[in-house]
Specification:
Elements lengths: L7 H11 L8 E3 L5 E16 L4 E7 L6 E10 L2 E10 L25 E10 L2 E9 L22 H4 L3 E3 L5 E5 H4 L7 E8 L6 E9 L9 E13 L2 E13 L6 E13 L3 E10 L5 E11 L8 E11 L7 E13 L4 E14 L2 E2 L3 E11 L1
Length: 372
């Protein structure tokens, strides 16, 4: 069975708009030197998912880098540089929310969960102090990736096709989804207070405490910390991060503990390597991700071309004893005259679990992002 989502019309119109031309983000500076910067992006694409028996087709917002609008207000104060940031998703139906069940997301469904950032950030000689809705210290700690192919694919497989279900060997749909099996322990955004130290020989340390205020019935307390390093070693540019998360569950239900780490290495030749992984300290769940890529500006005249091959392995996510293996081929082409990128990502999924047998699945993502 092949179907097309209700987001098709808006996605098609938006993708056509990408070819109409590029706009530039605008900066406005007041007489006292305060600067307002407006920005945004539209990232839409086609997703085809083959569960081994049927193929499902969808058009929508691509969660690897969701469509958004935002602005910053910068002010130089006596205590340091102060920035206010507001950023929201557009509420467009996401490819990660489609599935074979037919319960597709609305074309546009903006709600408070779309609020990404509403924060005040103070930067001075003592570090960076952040208050409000925004990134916890480990948000992105497992996602460092300089391959140039993150639009086509990252370690967060659920962002692209997370709601699709794997099909049992007998042809029936299981209750196990892509995001159930291909899980990761990266941090997130919360209403939080956060502190990051000044850089010292390439190192910074961050810590945060937050609450989930955008979802109902969540009274958990969230804590995390991360150590980051970035620097050059000969012809190599290296970034690395390692972090830990603690979630104190409401009603004295215990504390969830997870760890996460990643590193990305770019050689002057354009060859790059990304490694990431993490796990649950309370259980045996763990995941490992690797990506080998190449970036060059010599293949086209419109911008850099990046290609990569990726591999993700997970254990004990979704159901006890489950094992997920997936590999992918990724391509991203920058289109500088339009301030845009076009990308393609193919993935193959293999899942096993005690007492169950699943058919292999495949997905194909084709999309474009326009930024301003």
């Amino acid at each position: 069975m092949t179907k097309f989502s209700r987001s098709g019309p808006i996605a098609a119109a938006a993708l056509c708009a990408l070819t109409a031309g590029a706009a530039s983000a605008q900066d406005f500076t007041s007489a006292n030197g305060d600067t307002v910067h407006f920005y945004g992006q539209l990232n839409l694409g086609y997703l085809g998912f083959d569960d081994g028996q049927d193929t499902d087709n969808a058009f929508g917002n691509v969660g690897n880098s969701t469509s958004r609008l935002g602005f910053t207000l910068d002010h130089d104060a006596d205590i340091g540089a102060v920035r206010f940031r507001f950023e929201t998703g557009l509420g467009l139906g996401s490819t990660g929310s489609f599935s074979q069940s037919g319960d597709d997301p609305e074309v546009i469904d903006w709600n408070r969960r779309q609020l990404r950032k509403l924060e005040v950030v103070l930067t001075n000689d003592y570090g960076v102090f952040s208050v409000g809705q925004g990134s916890m210290a480990t948000d992105g700690a497992g996602g460092l990736d300089d391959s140039g192919t993150t639009l086509a694919g990252t370690k967060s497989f659920g962002d692209v096709a997370g709601s699709y279900l794997f099909r049992n060997a007998d042809g029936t749909l299981s209750s196990l989804s892509v995001s159930d099996v291909f899980h990761n322990t990266d941090g997130s955004r919360r209403m939080r207070v956060r502190y990051d130290t000044p850089e010292y020989y390439g190192f910074t340390v961050g810590a945060a405490y937050g609450r989930e205020v955008l979802a109902e019935d969540n009274d958990n307390d969230y804590y995390d910390a991360a150590v980051n390093w970035a620097g050059d070693v000969g012809d190599f540019k290296i970034k690395a991060s390692v972090g830990a998360n603690w979630v104190d569950q409401a009603d004295d239900a215990g504390t969830e503990k997870t760890g996460v780490a990643s590193a990305t290495i770019m050689h002057a030749s354009g060859v790059n390597l990304t490694l990431a992984g993490g796990g649950d300290f309370n259980s045996s769940g763990d995941w490992e991700y690797a990506k080998l890529g190449y970036t060059t500006a010599s293949w086209t005249q419109v911008g850099e071309t990046s290609v990569a091959v990726e591999y993700l392995e997970t254990d004990d996510y979704g159901v006890e004893g489950a094992r997920g293996e997936a590999w992918g081929l990724l391509l991203t082409q920058k289109i500088k005259p339009l301030n845009a990128e076009a990308y393609v990502g193919y993935r193959h999924y293999d899942v096993s679990a005690p007492g169950a047998s699943f058919q292999d699945a495949q997905s194909l993502l084709i999309g474009s992002r326009w930024s301003f």
